């Protein structure tokens, strides 16, 4: 296992981290704990969980595993910020996580799922969640205060530059990396650790192996391994999280990051240009089209359309339902596809030359259910 520095924290974390959101429904607490301990025995030392993962069993599974884990390890968990979060509610959540995990201190505590700059401001407001977590840190309950986010690279840069956090966790993979690259570079420049989640594009990559076979460096590696290596080999990424629900998956994924050659940014840029040639039907979420006069969040809808390109009508419908359920698509903020007036300004700006107007119209007619 290769270990990389997590920002300026002094901690060396395994290039592959264990994401605790993929334990199977029929997996018992002890069976899950056994998988976690096995991962630790293969060198994984970064374990990421959160309240509510896996029907709210994930923290309990890790807590069970930690009772008998022999190797050194670091624990990452999160405070859900809710609709009107405050310092006291975050404090309660931290105490609850400590109890369930059976530990005295959370190594990496996340302000969870910051969606954009407005959300960030709420987190940082006086008396808000950040200050509750900071107090817990001062009392020794937390090692490092970090955040997770689904914001754009540009917004992540702004958050990072404010200087309140020691690390960031963000979604990054061969589908969306242009959208987040700026945030990763900014975090690295400012000495923050970077954890990446969703390296397999929410299952899109393993479920479409033929389509993504171009990322493989040789015939012996699987597409999943190639996708993990793409993240883990980035010099600005400290740890690549992968949700693992069996020992076989753990072994397969650990093999992917063996003998990893850390790529320089210049090499990533070269890879980026060759990837794009293969991705000509997919939106890369680069955001060049974002100057819509109607304020439509075009990258978000085009990213959704990716699921139609790759997985067909059921794939896009399932993803839309999931995004709606968690408020990741909000017609008040993102506007609706039906708000498009067909000016085609976006199409002239699109780096992929996508027929955005037609795609929005198609989503409106075939996918939107309210
Ligand atoms: S064509 Fe539609 S989505 Fe594109 S910029 Fe004009 S209004 Fe916005
Ligand atoms: S629609 Fe085109 S310009 Fe807009 S984010 Fe996607 S690829 Fe980039």
UniProtKB/TrEMBL annotation:
**Domain 4Fe-4S ferredoxin-type, which positions?**
331-359
Q: Write down the SUPFAM superfamilies for this protein, in alphabetical order.
A: 4Fe-4S ferredoxins (SSF54862), NAD(P)-linked oxidoreductase (SSF51430)
Give the matching Pfam families. Aldo_ket_red, Fer4_9
- Write the protein's name: Aldo/keto reductase
Q: Origin organism of this chain?
A: Clostridium sulfidigenes
